[in-house]
Amino acid sequence: MERYFFPRDGFSEGAKVLNVSIDLAVHGRDSAPRPPVEAYLRVIEEPLLRLVSVDLGASADITNLAEVFDFAKDYLGLLKAAVIASGIVPPGLEGSGHSLAELLARMAGPGRGLEIVSHVNNIPKGSRLAVSTNLLAALISVCMRATAQAASVTGQLEEHDRRLVLARAILGEWLGGSGGGWQDSGGFGPA
Q1: For the sheet containing 37-44, what is the strand order?
Q2: Own/partner long-range contacts of 160-167 (Cβ < 8 Å, ≥24 apart)
Q3: Do 50 and 44 touch, CB atoms closer than 8 A?
Q4: Quick check: helix, strand or coil at residue 39?
């Protein structure tokens, strides 16, 4: 998460950025703090792409490439943008007529697919906490790790992988139209 502090006189050269990684909880409601956003990926025994947003209560089983690029169809645009920006479904495949099942078979094995799940933990929309960008970065990171595009499956990303995730998150913001921007991507770095 990041906050921007600008001097009252309007001179941005005096601005400071504070990057802080925190778990959140509401006193009296939550039993323990949780990460602001969570992202999961697993291989499933169906030749499709299953996208799930726990907090939005939305899910879709996608069986063709055209659906991946249809951001207006449902509330899963951010997950679709992550799938494209991460390279699981390269942007150049839009309108190509290729088979999603064949693409998934190359990654996960014949007859298999991927399930990608996102969860924003009780952060209200419009919180100004760069939630969409950080969720995109988490989704892209998990997708890159699962497809061997990142050096490690667990732990901190190496610097070159982290920079690639940030660049792809900016692409994902543009693709999905979530309203975040390049300035939000600073929250996905070492604290």
Answers
A1: 37-44, 113-120, 49-53, 58-62
A2: 162/188, 162/189, 162/190, 165/137, 165/140, 165/141, 166/137
A3: yes
A4: strand
Per-residue pLDDT of 70-86, as tens digits, reads 988 999 999 999 999 99
Residues 175-185 as b/e (b if ≥16 CB within 10 A, e otherwise) read: bbebebeeebb
d(CA 18, CA 26): 22
CB atoms within 10 A of CB 83: 24
Coil, helix or strand at residue 16: strand
Overall size of the chain counted in residues = 191
Q: Does the pTM exceed 0.85?
A: no
The CA-atom distances, in angstroms, between 96 and each of 37, 40, 83, 168, 171 are 33, 28, 17, 22, 20
* Residue 82 · residue 175 · CB < 8 Å: no
- Joined together, the tokens standing for residue 18 give 């504070």
